[in-house]
Design brief:
The protein is an all-alpha fold. It is built from nine helices and no strands. The chain has helices at residues 13-40, 45-48, 62-74, 97-128, 137-156, 164-172, 175-183, 188-198, 200-221.
Length: 233
């Protein structure tokens, strides 16, 4: 992405806290969706571990959710990485392991797409009824809610293991091709970091997808302002 994902230095503390809450809610709902669908398909592992919940505490990973994003933000990095604890899945509990795993995988990104639409609708209503005007800091918070969820939707559908998109691709593969593809997961994080830092085309494609879906949501809801926060442009 060409946008620099760093918060403006003059942002107020209440708005900063609201932004953090939105980010945590977006990640929490994503992971809870994985856990809930897995439970509904017959795997109770995540349920027993307390992951079928919107309480963020069971989903937060100290390093990935807090330390890494904070370190990248403070260092002025143009890319902010982060995440939550992966939801444990016992594929042997599924009736159709790879099909059900694909359904579990897609649940996370879909939850983010729904959240993006929800934030867009709230933003439209707040502006339409004059609760906020376009200059309000709160507008930027709601725009961030849309952006973060569109970002999570698009990024998690990248078909590089262990991202959700790879589980969907694995469903359409079979035999040795599937085994070879899944084996890449050991190096997945390294590959992702390499793509972000060394392959400009990767950032361009991901950025294009983000702005396509962001504009799609904006046009569908009928927003009269940008769906992306101004400090990201």
């Amino acid at each position: 992405m060409s946008a620099k994902m760093a918060l403006p230095m003059d942002i107020s503390m209440p708005i900063l806290l609201l932004s953090v809450i939105i980010c945590i809610l977006s990640i929490t709902t994503h992971e809870a969706a994985h856990a809930w669908v897995s439970y509904r398909l017959g795997d109770d592992l995540a349920y027993k571990m307390g992951r079928v919940t919107l309480n963020p505490m069971p989903h937060i990973d100290l390093m990935m959710t807090i330390v890494l994003p904070a370190a990248l933000l403070l260092s002025g990095s143009p890319f902010i990485f982060g995440g939550a604890k992966p939801v444990p899945v016992n594929m042997r509990a599924f009736r159709k392991p790879f099909k059900d795993m694909a359904l579990v995988a897609i649940a996370g990104p879909l939850s983010n797409l729904i959240q993006a639409f929800a934030w867009a609708i709230i933003l439209k209503l707040f502006l339409q009824f004059g609760i906020w005007d376009v200059r309000s800091e709160g507008v930027g918070v709601l725009q961030l809610g849309i952006f973060i969820n569109v970002l999570l939707f698009a990024f998690n559908l990248v078909p590089i293991p262990p991202l959700d998109g790879s589980r969907i691709v694995a469903f359409f593969l079979s035999g040795e091709a599937r085994r070879a593809y899944i084996s890449v997961e050991r190096f997945g994080i390294i590959i992702l970091l390499g793509c972000f830092w060394l392959v400009p085309q990767f950032r361009i494609i991901l950025g294009t997808c983000i702005y396509f879906f962001g504009n799609l949501i904006s046009n569908t809801v009928g927003l009269t302002v940008s769906w992306a926060p101004g400090f990201l442009t």
